[in-house]
Write a structure and sequence with these properties.
The structure is a single chain. With about 240 residues, this protein is of the alpha+beta class. Helix content is about 30%, strand content about 25%. The strands form two sheets. Strands 1, 4, 5, 6, 7, 8, 9, 10, 11 and 12 form a ten-stranded antiparallel beta sheet that branches. Strands 2-3 form a two-stranded antiparallel ribbon. It is globular and about 40 Å long. The N and C termini lie far apart (about 110 Å). The N terminus is likely disordered.
């Protein structure tokens, strides 16, 4: 019996040694593979390619979402000419039957000094829609109205809504913001004789202030700076005017 056990152990010993040698050889092979100079850069490049691809897919999706938030702009509407804008395309953000109007009593009697900076406009129009802030130039985010005689004029609510901000800004002058629902806000700057307060409900064409002055565009003297914002981003006011 002892001789049989000894013979059995002798037969099993090479098997265990072979298994250990196999594992050692496998580990040694991996070490040799990773020791090669081209392996680590190859793994790094593959990982980088995967990351860049995922970022490209994510950014492409984000740009699509952002593009659908605002209306399509056109160079003609960027000039604020008072004709029919693109309100038909964006009227969905305005509730009820009321349509947005210009925030002045007589649009044609006023000069439009600085227009909204529209990416789709011509190079000359885009250059004219830049304003200087300190030592740099920035895109103009609204439309500036000026009386040719330099006299103050009434500023009207462009659309019914709730006054959500009334403040005096060090460079933009007196500011009034009116929220109209669905993310749409109208902004009135460079005001004087403000006649509304935060929390007031105002009807369209209600006089909310008079045109005044601001430090930012002091060269315009008495004027109104008018903006429309959708979900916090400036959009072309002309796109929301339906006449």
């Amino acid at each position: 019996m002892n001789e049989q056990n000894q013979n059995k152990n002798k037969q099993e010993t090479p098997k265990n040694s072979l298994g250990g040698a196999s594992a050692a050889n496998s580990s040694s092979g991996l070490k040799k593979l990773f020791a090669k100079r081209w392996v680590s850069p190859a793994i790094f490049m593959a990982a980088a390619a995967i990351i860049v691809t995922l970022m490209w897919i994510y950014q492409g999706s984000g740009e699509t979402d952002q593009a659908t938030m605002g209306p399509d702009n056109a160079a003609e509407e960027a000039q604020g000419n008072g004709e029919t804008g693109k309100g038909e395309d964006v009227v969905g953000v305005i509730t009820g039957d009321e349509k947005m109007a210009w925030p002045v009593a007589d649009y044609n009697a006023l000069q439009k000094e600085t227009l909204y900076y529209d990416e789709d406009a011509s190079e000359a129009e885009k250059e004219a829609a830049l304003i200087q802030v300190g030592n740099s130039f920035t895109a103009h985010t609204g439309i500036d109205f000026v009386d040719p005689n330099g006299t103050p004029f009434d500023v009207l609510a462009a659309l019914s809504g709730k006054v959500t901000l009334v403040k005096q800004h060090p460079t933009n002058g007196n500011i009034v913001e009116i929220s109209h629902g669905n993310g749409l806000v109208t902004v009135y700057q460079s005001l004087s004789d403000v006649q509304v307060a935060e929390g007031d409900d105002v009807e369209q064409n209600t006089i909310i202030a008079k045109a005044g002055r601001s430090e930012l565009e002091s060269d315009l003297d008495v004027h109104l700076h008018f903006e429309t914002r959708l979900n916090g981003s400036p959009v072309n006011p002309a796109d929301y005017i339906v006449k």
